[in-house]
Write a structure and sequence with these properties.
One of its GO terms (biological process) is protein ubiquitination. The protein is built from 34 helices and no strands. It is mainly alpha-helical. Among the domains are: 102 residues, Serine Threonine Protein Phosphatase 5, Tetratricopeptide repeat, CATH 1.25.40.10; 87 residues, Serine Threonine Protein Phosphatase 5, Tetratricopeptide repeat; 94 residues, Serine Threonine Protein Phosphatase 5, Tetratricopeptide repeat, CATH 1.25.40.10. The C terminus is likely disordered.
């Protein structure tokens, strides 16, 4: 036997004897030699989770059959490494069970170490230093609970960690959990603790701003690092911009972020572009919102954040093929985020497949319960299916998560109006008007409710005039003003309003309403043109289709003259040219009937 084979045989026998032959406690590792626990720890550190799971399971069974085989500290380590491997395999309940057993073992180990006097064994010192952190075990347990949607249990386990021992990631998780539970004060405290330890934790800054902490106060917590670290002069402006975002001051937020984005060092930043796109959307400027989303998407083809809003905007414009392609692309990137499911849900919703939209919205919420767009999608689907009370619950939750987003309030008010709860709708619209300020969007929302009550028609007119003075191109205000003019049969005024609004933009709804107004003043040819433009923008717009079909049924003056000529010929007995044409007449009759059915 050559020396190499002899060395391999000796090593194999050594491992065999150490693992299976001695049914007695493993001796402390001699200097330079590793025991089986060391091998498990090294595999865990190397990321060999499946290997750790198999080996630790076997070793734990051995320990259960012979409790003296491993020391308490060794069994604690085995339980933690085994739980870590279960966590990696997403078996969260099983992992929590093993982590709990590990903590019980650690508690027993602590009691034993207090009672037993020190023997002066130098080998035990390195072993104790290698023990997994009890605080880290509790953090992983909290992670398991959050994955299982058991936030109260996650808070309880993290609350049990003394404040001085909490790491930044523990404080960050606690802050997010407190915020989700509506406990603002402890959430603010935890976010501030994160910033105290890590002053450049930008997500913690956003968390504080979302909880109404003043931007100046937040900026003061980062002042030292801004002054001491070069190239961070933009941070104070960044904080100022997002302070405007969270107070609902969209115009100032847009201006501030634009000033940041124009700086050479921050130009073409995907996060800033995404924030700009979202702000334009909130301000009702859908055209610029779509442009910014497209710009961000070109810079980062794998971008997921914000794509749910982008898909919704495309669906509203009738670009359903683009929405379908976007959904497929996002699913190829990740199906574990809410955004792909919301985008597909928007495609279904605007294809009038409300049951499927409901399912996709529910799936998105399951993946991310904080997804505002998913809640809005599911709420809209429920409303259109006649399940208004369930829809109201979802819109209220969306408002809780995003109190500065007007579309959340619009959905809720639409539910109130659908259930004839005009009083509740009026109270909500007034609250939004007072909370978010008198801008074109809030004025239009309040006017929408006023239009439902004959007593408040004049008030609605005043509100819409104010909205259009602020933003003449605001589509929702134009639509509602046109609706009011239609009731008053002031078609010429309505045509002038719509032509002015369409001078610098093209929108399916505006073209369709203009077509309706032109029909009312007998401008049939131009009305047909407007319906055609509307359908080119949104081929699925049913009302434009109905308008065209109604016009096709109407007899043109030329057709009427021809029919009178035929009647004259029949009356005078001049039938020569018409003999033998029964089959052709039948074909024309069939065609007229077909058009009439469209």
């Amino acid at each position: 036997m050559d020396p190499g084979e002899a060395a391999i045989l000796e090593s194999s026998l050594s491992v065999f004897y150490r693992l299976f032959v001695p049914l007695r406690p493993l001796p402390a590792a001699l200097p330079g030699r590793m025991n089986v626990i060391d091998h498990v720890r090294d595999m865990a550190a190397a990321g060999l989770h499946s290997n750790v799971r198999l080996l630790s399971s076997l070793l734990l069974t051995m320990s259960n059959n012979n409790p003296e085989l491993f020391s308490p500290s060794q069994k604690y380590q085995l339980l933690v490494y085994h739980a870590d491997s279960l966590f990696h395999d997403k078996e969260y309940r099983n992992a929590v069970s093993k982590y709990t057993m590990a903590l019980q073992q650690k508690k027993a180990l602590s009691k034993t170490s207090k009672v037993r006097p020190s023997t002066g064994n130098s080998a035990s010192a390195p072993q104790s230093q290698c023990l997994p952190s009890e605080i880290e075990v509790k953090y992983k347990m909290a992670e398991c609970y959050t994955m299982l949607k058991q936030d109260k249990d996650a808070i309880a386990i993290l609350d049990g960690i003394p404040s001085r021992q909490r790491t930044p990631k523990i404080n960050m998780m606690l802050a997010n959990l407190y915020k989700k539970a509506g406990q603002e004060r402890p959430s603010v405290t935890s976010y501030k603790e994160v910033l105290r330890q890590c002053p450049l934790a930008l997500d913690a800054i956003l968390g504080l701003l979302s909880l109404s902490v003043k931007g100046a106060e937040v900026a003061s917590m980062t002042m030292n690092v801004i002054q001491s670290v070069p190239n961070l002069d933009w941070l104070s402006v960044w904080i100022k911009a997002y302070a405007f975002v969270h107070t609902g001051d969209n115009s100032r937020a847009i201006n501030t972020i634009c000033s940041l984005e124009k700086k050479s060092l921050l130009r073409d930043n995907v996060d800033l572009l995404g924030s700009l796109a979202d702000l334009y959307f909130r301000a009702g400027d859908n055209k610029n919102s779509v442009l910014k989303f497209e710009q961000a998407q070109m810079l980062d083809p794998y971008l997921i954040k914000g794509m749910d809003v982008y898909g919704y905007l495309l669906a509203r414009e009738g670009r359903l093929e683009d929405v379908e392609n976007l959904g497929c692309r996002l699913f190829n990137i990740s199906d574990q985020h809410a955004e792909p499911w919301v985008v597909s849900g928007c495609h279904s919703f605007y294809s009038k497949r409300y049951s499927r939209a409901l399912y996709l919205g529910a799936k998105a919420i399951q993946l991310n319960s904080n997804s505002v767009q998913a809640l809005l999608l599911k709420g809209a689907a429920l409303r259109n299916m006649g399940r208004v009370q369930e829809a109201i619950i979802h819109f209220r939750e969306a408002i809780r998560l995003a109190p500065c987003r007007l579309d959340c309030y619009e959905g809720l008010i639409e539910c109130y109006l659908a259930s004839n709860s005009i009083r509740e709708a009026m109270v909500m619209a007034n609250n939004v008007y007072k909370t978010l300020g008198a801008n074109a969007q809030t004025l239009t929302l309040l006017a929408t409710v006023c239009l439902e009550d004959p007593v408040t028609q004049e008030k609605a007119k005043t509100l819409l005039d104010k909205a259009l003075n602020q933003r003449p191109d605001y589509i929702k205000a134009v639509v509602k003003k046109a609706e009011l003019l239609s009731r008053e049969q002031k078609y010429e005024d309505g045509i002038a309003l719509l032509r002015n609004a369409l001078a610098n933009q093209s929108d399916c709804v505006l073209h369709r309403i203009l077509g309706d107004f032109l029909v009312a003043v007998n401008e049939y040819q131009e009305a047909m043109d407007q319906y055609s433009i509307a359908l080119s923008l949104d081929p699925n717009d049913q009302k434009s289709l109905e308008g065209m079909q109604k016009m096709e049924k109407e007899e043109s003056p030329t057709d009427a003259t021809q029919e009178e000529d035929v009647d004259d010929m029949e009356g005078s007995g001049e039938e020569g040219d018409l003999e033998g044409s029964d089959s052709e007449a039948a074909q024309w009759a069939d065609q007229e009937q077909w058009f009439g059915m469209q």
